[in-house]
């Protein structure tokens, strides 16, 4: 996607040395460790006030050279967003998204009962209902819970995170929060840290990766979670394991005793079908919105407002994906990366302010269509998903 201000960045080449990737510099390897105060501060998301931009430091611990004009830009935009947030009701801040999640729960009985039918149309309706509900709870619910955007209470936020991430999604809260909030958001498009490399499977060809591999997401998710449990405390690992087993077994039990499946294999096949219904757009969205955009070396990353405006892309609004994934993952991804603690509805509300401000300040505001990004990745799969991404050299904003 062409940037609005083409003079801001240019690729510097494809070779990425060990120090940039964090393999040769011990300070970089330790930068993302759990409990690090710098990444913990980033994990808290957006907080009102100028403090949003004061803590931007390099992963090695050395503060970046002060760039007052850039800090002033982020502070000014933050103040504009604060005014909107303060003038918004609880319904706008949290109620709309909670209602969407509540409606999804209320649709669950209809989905399981539709699967009892021997006729094709009601049965397929049941698959569609359960598939959409599953992704609404596991993608939208888990994403909002990981950012504590469902409630203003941190205690309740922890409860919702365990419910949506562990019980519904069969993953672990600690690792989900660490990898997504602290690393991906803290170092968006920084090589070796937040460059979305976890989504790359270079041993797969483009068609297998884009159209076949997503079907394995429901199976791979709990397997990856089990492997990651070795990195958390035993109490958290035990809690996660219990929640994962409970969530998967409840789904299986309901298919047998409510939907009337006669064999375990048919119930497991239906679980796979419903849990992978929107797996393709889930994988696609995660790569479309960052990979292929400017990437930065860890010791030369720009300040927050430039990092997010350069390295994040919005897709157009889509009724199904807006409901299932949330605005912050689709049409308001730029806004979400700038202000990650805001709910989906609030990201949508501040979108006109953010887009107008970035364009007014001659900063990139990346937007593209789903079909255009899909075609781009099919055409340039080797370059974007197999080879190391080029480091972007900043020009004109340092």
Average residue-wise pLDDT: 85
- Shape verdict: globular
Structural class: mainly alpha
Distance between the termini: 23 Å
Oligomer: single chain
Q: Please indicate the percent range of residues in DSSP E strands (runs of 2 or more).
A: under 5%
Could you give the count of β-strands?
4
Described by strand count, sense and barrel closure, the largest sheet is:
2 strands, antiparallel
Given as residue ranges, the uncertain stretches (5+ residues, pLDDT < 50) are: 1-8, 13-67
Q: What is the helix tally?
A: 19
Helical residue percent band: 55-70%
Count structural domains: 1
Keywords: Fatty acid biosynthesis, Fatty acid metabolism, Lipid biosynthesis, Lipid metabolism, Membrane, Transmembrane, Transmembrane helix
InterPro entries: FA_desaturase_dom (IPR005804), Fatty_acid_desaturase (IPR012171)
Transmembrane segments: 98-115, 120-137, 207-229, 236-258
GO molecular function: oxidoreductase activity, acting on paired donors, with oxidation of a pair of donors resulting in the reduction of molecular oxygen to two molecules of water
């Amino acid at each position: 996607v062409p940037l609005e201000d083409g003079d801001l960045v240019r690729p510097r080449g494809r070779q990425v040395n060990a120090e940039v990737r964090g393999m040769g510099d011990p300070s970089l390897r330790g930068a993302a460790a759990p409990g690090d105060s710098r990444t913990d501060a980033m994990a808290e998301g957006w907080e009102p006030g100028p403090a949003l931009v004061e803590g931007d430091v390099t992963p090695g611990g050395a503060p970046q050279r002060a760039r007052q004009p850039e800090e002033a830009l982020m502070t000014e935009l933050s103040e504009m967003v604060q005014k909107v947030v303060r003038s918004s009701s609880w319904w706008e801040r949290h109620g709309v998204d909670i209602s969407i999640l509540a409606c999804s729960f209320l649709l669950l009985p209809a989905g399981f009962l539709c699967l009892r039918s021997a006729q094709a149309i009601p049965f397929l309706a049941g698959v569609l209902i359960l598939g959409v509900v599953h992704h609404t709870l596991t993608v939208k619910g888990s994403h909002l819970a990981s950012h504590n955007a469902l409630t203003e209470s941190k205690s309740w936020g922890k409860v919702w995170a365990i419910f949506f991430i562990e019980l519904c999604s069969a993953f672990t809260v600690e690792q989900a929060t660490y990898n997504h909030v602290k690393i991906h958001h803290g170092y968006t498009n920084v090589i070796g840290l937040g460059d979305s490399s976890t989504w790359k499977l270079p041993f797969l060809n483009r068609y297998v990766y884009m159209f076949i591999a997503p079907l394995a997401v429901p199976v791979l998710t709990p397997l990856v979670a089990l492997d990651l449990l070795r990195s958390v405390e035993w109490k958290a690992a035990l809690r996660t394991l219990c929640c994962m087993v409970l969530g998967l077994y409840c789904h299986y039990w309901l298919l047998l005793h409510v939907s009337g499946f006669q064999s375990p294999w048919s119930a497991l096949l239906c679980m796979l079908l419903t849990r992978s219904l929107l797996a393709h757009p889930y994988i696609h969205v995660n790569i479309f919105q960052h990979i292929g955009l400017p990437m930065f070396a860890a010791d030369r990353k720009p300040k927050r407002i430039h990092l997010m405006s350069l390295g994040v892309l919005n897709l157009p609004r889509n009724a199904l994906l807006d409901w299932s994934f949330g605005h912050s993952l689709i049409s308001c991804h730029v806004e979400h990366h700038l202000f990650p603690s805001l709910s989906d509805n609030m990201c949508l509300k501040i979108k006109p302010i953010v887009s107008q401000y970035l364009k007014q300040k001659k900063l990139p505001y990346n937007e593209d269509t789903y079909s255009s990004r899909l075609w781009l990745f099919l055409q340039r799969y080797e370059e974007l998903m197999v080879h190391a991404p080029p480091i972007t050299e900043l020009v004109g904003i340092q």
